[in-house]
Design a protein that fits this description.
With about 325 residues, the protein is of the alpha+beta class. It has 3 domains: about 200 residues, GAF domain (Beta-Lactamase, 2-Layer Sandwich); about 55 residues, no CATH class; about 40 residues, Homeodomain-like (Arc Repressor Mutant, subunit A, Orthogonal Bundle), CATH 1.10.10. The chain is built from 14 helices and 8 strands. The strands form 2 sheets. Strands 2-1-5-4-3 form a 5-stranded antiparallel beta sheet, sandwiched between helices. Strands 6-7-8 form a 3-stranded antiparallel beta sheet. A hairpin with a 4-residue loop joins strand 1 and strand 2. Helix 13 crosses helix 14. The chain is elongated, with a radius of gyration of 28 Å. The mean pLDDT is about 90.
Amino acid sequence: MQEHVTHADQVYVSAQSAAASSRVVASWRRCMTVHRLAPEEKRLPLRLTEQELRLVRAQSQELIAQAVDELDLLFQTVGKAGCCLLLTDHEGIALERRGVAADDKEFHDIGLWPGSIWTEASIGTNGIGTAIADDRAVSIIRDQHFFSSTINLSCTTAPIRDSRGQLAGALDVSTCRDDLNETTLSIISQTVRDTAMRIELNLFRHAFAGARFVVLPTPTGTMSALLAVDKSDMVLGATRTARSALELDDERIDAGICAADLLGEGVGAERQDLREAERAALLRALSRANGNVTQAALSLGMSRATLHRKINRFGLH
């Protein structure tokens, strides 16, 4: 009980201090001033009914479909370490869960279960809600949570973007273990971010199935900067990272933009493409004519002399 009182006092003092400016304290302030929450309150996250959850899952069926394999792989890595995985939608509603059966009761009682709402408005500062509010990956460790009733929980969360770069959901790994050290936390945090990125790429590739994908070079070497390009080299879509790197938005993409122009390959690339296309056409004509220049020239609708000049220019002897 004393631990809970001390924590609540710390939240009040930090949130009211003008000097404190961390992400955690900023979240505490939101919880108090925007959501009108009190840190000493004992509560669980709000939960949907089974019918409401079915409706929400139906609305996020593509996210779930593209995430399930990644969730299974991630659980194989962290599940036995006493961790629980949650996949939520863009409103922080838990859609999918992975956990060890022996830990089910503990996590269910905390609210780490499908249908629970992990927004800041519902349960104060927490990994999922704060990642959604801040629009970036975050770790909320034990007493960094807002409510005294959740200070035994450690959460690491990364947002997930859809094919247009908009928030689609969040991926969270949580644990109640009290021996979580900085090294372990760092590994889990990076693993969660990597898994969230793979889910994003799954969503992107599925949305533009049949397109050609161009990977953009980035300073960090990440593979998340992708363009989807059609057969005419027109950009169909771009991931959030690619949009940021190339200053793209829906309006610019919908208006029509050539990938070669966007990547600075414009006129030079077009000339090279035309040269290669002409060379290929000459080779096909000569092959079909068994090397007979006269027959090849006739099939191409040009004179024998013109074809000879082109053969010399392209080195097709």
